[in-house]
Amino acid sequence: MASNLNGLIIRDLGRSDYQTTLQTMQAFTNDRNAETPDEFWLTEHDAIYTLGLNRKNVRLPQNNIPVVLVDRGGKITYHGIGQVVIYLLVDLSRRNLNVRQLVNIMETSIIELLGQHKLNAIAKANAPGVYIDEKKIASLGLRLKNQCCYHGLSLNVDMDLSPFSAIDPCGYVGLKVTQTKDLGIADSAQDIGKALLKHLQEKLQKCHKQFKPTQK
Model pTM greater than 0.90? Predict the structure, then answer.
């Protein structure tokens, strides 16, 4: 299911296979041109670990959950059902953005969403992501190619958190994780994902005058 909001296409992929989605993102980014609208993809993945480009000294899990090598920045993280995943396929040059500014959009969107539920979340300058009481609730990771980015963010909502204990999340030894369900938010992953998309979309549209593809 997809919708077009002022030149920004929003796709709800539902439950999707991680590797298929990654290949689709890569193909989209390789094939896009100056007139290609930006897209946000909302999804959930079955249990999987993804290992980013910073792979040195990473503690690998000793269980049966697959580990996939990916081309985003960062180290290792976990995805599973009940976690909101949003991929941001954005032409940064067209929106006069750099990666740090896009990361700030992602972090502040999550922080504002959680704030609406009376939760005090923060970002850390030296550890991208969003935290509550020193526990990580959201992870970020991007890949840039020809000033166009892909990959995105994950927000823990209502999932089995135990697979995180088999790794050092994002490379940080002893880092604890949390999720919205355990913090008193009853909203489903789908509802939280849609609410987060609105925050992201509003912030991104403020960065540049609305992009309108050439009419054919």
Answer: yes
